[in-house]
Design goal:
4-stranded mixed beta sheet; 3-stranded antiparallel beta sheet; about 20% strand; 9 helices; alpha+beta; 9 strands
């Protein structure tokens, strides 16, 4: 396979999966050698085994980091502070893009940034939707689900002080009934208790805002 053939096939793809090229009729072993060579030449960026992105100036579609996150570990969706910042429930996110996955947990540190994945059981893979981005779309947790993930993976005691440290904003956008109903699906007494406390804190802050 020549590089111009790759461009003809995949230049409009946000990401390039080697298995998709094999499905197009390219021999697997020879393709692996050629992909590795193009990475060395700076024509391709290797994101993980079998997943690549064209480098500039060959790239016609520049995928968002959120879009890339969905592909680095599959299936997965963005959650935690990353999703809360996207929904404007906290003032800002962190450079680390955090997701949940039913696959293996792990941290990817690549040229595009750092991507962290936490494992959840298949029964807990819910509470997300496809959101439009500047380029393409990505699977992102609802604000309620992102808050539950924060509480579920929070080490130590879940108390009011730690909840207030989240600096939640735009509280009217939260569905507190959904928050508690989804917490029950985790079948975790600790999380159910944390969600109830979170709801109480949010309702109290809403009341305080209404009196201003």
């Amino acid at each position: 396979m020549r590089f111009r053939e790759l461009l003809s096939t995949a230049q409009t793809w946000p990401l390039i999966e080697s298995q998709s090229l094999v499905a197009c009729g390219h021999e697997k072993r020879a393709l692996a050698v050629q992909l590795s060579r193009w990475v060395s030449q700076g024509r391709l960026m290797r994101l993980r085994r079998g997943l690549y992105m064209l480098c500039e100036p060959y790239q016609r579609v520049s995928p968002s980091r959120e879009y890339v996150a969905n592909f680095l570990r599959r299936p997965s969706f963005i959650s935690f502070e990353s999703a809360l910042a996207f929904h404007n429930i906290i003032p800002e996110g962190t450079p680390l893009l955090r997701s949940v996955t039913t696959s293996r947990p792990g941290l990817f540190s690549i040229e595009l940034g750092e991507f962290d994945y936490r494992h959840v059981a298949a029964s807990r893979f819910f509470g997300y939707r496809e959101c439009s981005m500047a380029s393409g779309s990505a699977l992102i947790a609802t604000p309620e689900r992102a808050l539950l993930d924060l509480l579920y993976f929070m080490k130590g005691l879940i108390d009011e002080a730690r909840i207030r440290e989240l600096r939640l904003q735009n509280l009217e956008d939260l569905d507190l009934n959904m928050l508690q109903s989804q917490a029950l699906r985790y079948e975790s007494p600790r999380l159910a208790s944390g969600a109830a406390l979170l709801r109480a804190v949010v309702e109290r802050e809403q009341q305080e805002l209404e009196t201003l």
